[in-house]
Write a structure and sequence with these properties.
Blueprint (H helix, E strand, L loop, with lengths): L1 H7 L2 H6 L24 H12 L11 H8 L3 E4 L7 H7 L8 H8 L2 H13 L7 H26 L14 H4 L6 H18 L16 H15 L2 H13 L22 E5 L21 H5 L13 E4 L1 H4 L8 H5 E3 L19 E3 L19 E5 H14 L3 H4 L3 E3 L2 E2 L1 H8 L10 H15 L6 H7 L6 H7 L16 H6 L10
Antiparallel strand pairs: 1-3, 2-6, 4-5, 7-8
Helix pairs in contact: 1-7, 3-7, 3-8, 4-5, 7-8, 8-10, 10-11, 11-12, 11-16, 12-16, 16-18, 16-19
């Protein structure tokens, strides 16, 4: 795709920033040049560090991924009204065009990460270095490439599949055609399968390496890929492997979103933020280091958090989904009469819907300015794995196993372990259809505003769930074409080999 190219010239500069000052003496600095880089262990580490960085940017987990819950109907933009967030508004109202800004961001967001992973996989194997570290770096690159492509293929369907970084780009590389999604998924499965073999367990990481991709991260992500593909037996197998690696639920749900307890026992993979700008804290990289989710979602005109732009306001319909006694409600949303936040009472006048998001808010004592939030963003949690396992068991007809009673958060059936942590009673005795509905509701509440719900509703029932569900929320403009985002028109114009998605 065309957007790969624009990052090529800047890649080496980006990889070198914050890694080692002597890289600045290398010339030329404006090209990918194996004659002056990819020679040492430091080069290999700098290269893989660069492959993580696009996850942190607003085109992915610092904005567009979590705003997909707005598209899916859990919330509205809110914010300042008018044209504020118009791209997101247009997706959520299903009036988007090929000029939509959110679609453009999501199309371009993974591109630099894929390129950087390809560069690592091309050049690092030839570097003379400790073999275990080399294998780990290659495993990280395969995991990251799999994750980036998984985002793309679910959002757009067929996408250009590029697995090389040629020294002299060909016309085919510069102007690629879209690859059938089945082939893209096959590459994702291959990458993640190989990553599982190459990566260490999370316990081997320490110090500044904590948070790198691990065997558990690759296994959990591959389980999600197989669930998306409808291979339920493989999903169950991989979820059980994750459990065998020692992951557990946090006793406190909110600990998963607290910067003081990040990368905890429930975390398979998080986007790492340090709450600083232009530092070398994130794997030696030098990038925008602050998470913006608290700044964006904090109540507007409330002075509760640094920033406070009022985005992502939960709807009444979403709030109504909570059962009495669900402990997640007070830890996910702000509502009048609910618990104070950082000593301040919430007023429904702060929001168009009467609600704001609480889940990711960080008090000013932790983040004093809009760009100092150190809270990581969760990409994959063990609770997600348990709910994937429950869903797959139920689809295989193993309904009793899926809803087996739980005696604690560490013992019992996968669905009810999640419910027990939420303070809810065991669900038992449901038939397959009723349990399917219950699991979907549980996923919606447990993973709310973490960027999963949109990708869930487009995969349920082989795509047959999407339109009726959105129409039930009053989103009557939604149609089957909206299960895929449009290929941005400026990308189609730049690359004549790209073909637009149907209906746009």
């Amino acid at each position: 795709m065309k957007s790969f190219i624009k990052y090529t010239a800047a890649l080496l500069l980006t990889l070198g920033l914050g890694s080692c000052d002597d890289y600045l003496d290398r010339t030329p600095l404006d090209t990918i040049n194996p004659s002056n880089f990819y020679k040492t262990e430091k080069d290999a580490i700098a290269a893989i560090n660069g492959a993580y960085q696009p996850l942190m940017w607003p085109k992915l987990y610092n904005f567009q991924i979590w705003t997909s819950d707005i598209w899916a109907g859990n919330s509205i933009v809110g914010a300042g009204g008018g044209t504020d967030g118009i791209g997101t508004q247009d997706v959520s109202n299903f009036v988007l065009t090929t000029a939509n800004e959110a679609a453009l961001d999501l199309w371009r967001g993974p591109s630099p990460g894929i390129l950087r992973a390809n560069v690592v996989l091309k050049y690092v194997p030839a570097i003379e270095m400790e073999e275990g570290l080399k294998n780990r770096i290659l495993g990280e690159a395969k995991f990251l490439r799999g994750l980036y492509y998984f985002i793309l293929v679910r959002a757009f369907g067929d996408v250009p599949l590029i697995t090389d970084a040629p020294d002299t780009p060909t016309q085919e590389y510069l102007y690629p055609s879209r690859t059938p999604k089945d082939q893209v998924y096959a590459q994702i499965v291959q990458d993640l399968t190989e990553a599982i073999e190459l990566l260490p367990t999370r316990e081997t990481y320490s110090g500044s390496d904590i948070g790198r991709a691990s065997k558990g991260a690759a296994t959990g992500l591959l389980a999600k890929v197989y669930l998306t593909l409808g291979d339920y037996a493989k999903t169950v197998e991989l979820c059980e492997q994750v459990t065998s690696l020692g992951y557990t639920l946090n006793p406190d749900y909110s600990a998963n979103f607290n910067p003081l307890s990040e990368n905890g026992p429930e975390s398979l993979f998080e986007v790492q933020y340090a709450g600083k700008v232009n530092t070398a804290d994130f794997f030696g990289g030098n990038e925008q280091m602050a998470s913006w989710v608290s700044t964006f979602t904090g109540p507007r005109n409330a002075n509760m958090v640094a920033g406070g732009y009022g985005w992502n306001q939960p709807t009444q319909e979403f709030v109504n989904q909570y059962e009495p006694g669900d402990l997640r409600k007070d830890k996910t949303i702000l509502y009048e009469g609910g618990p104070d936040f950082d000593g301040q009472a919430y007023k429904k006048s702060y929001s168009v819907t009467g609600y704001n998001l609480r889940k990711f808010l960080v008090p000013k004592s932790v983040s004093s300015e809009y760009n100092t939030n150190p809270a990581n963003f969760p990409v994959l949690r063990y609770a997600d794995v348990l709910l994937m396992q429950a869903e797959a068991l139920n689809e295989l007809g193993r309904t009793a196993e899926a809803q087996a009673p739980a005696t604690s958060i560490n013992n019992g059936g996968p669905l009810n372990r999640v419910r027990l942590r939420a303070g809810l009673p065991n669900l038992t005795g449901l038939n397959q259809v009723a349990l399917r509905t219950a699991i979907r509701k549980e996923r919606r509440l447990e993973l709310a505003f973490e960027g999963h719900h949109w990708f869930d509703i487009i995969r349920y029932d082989n795509g047959q769930y999407f339109v009726p569900y959105l129409h039930s929320l009053g989103k009557t403009n939604a149609s089957t074409k909206h299960m895929l985002l449009p290929i941005p028109q400026q990308e189609v114009t730049a690359n004549p080999n790209l073909v637009q998605n149907p209906g746009y």
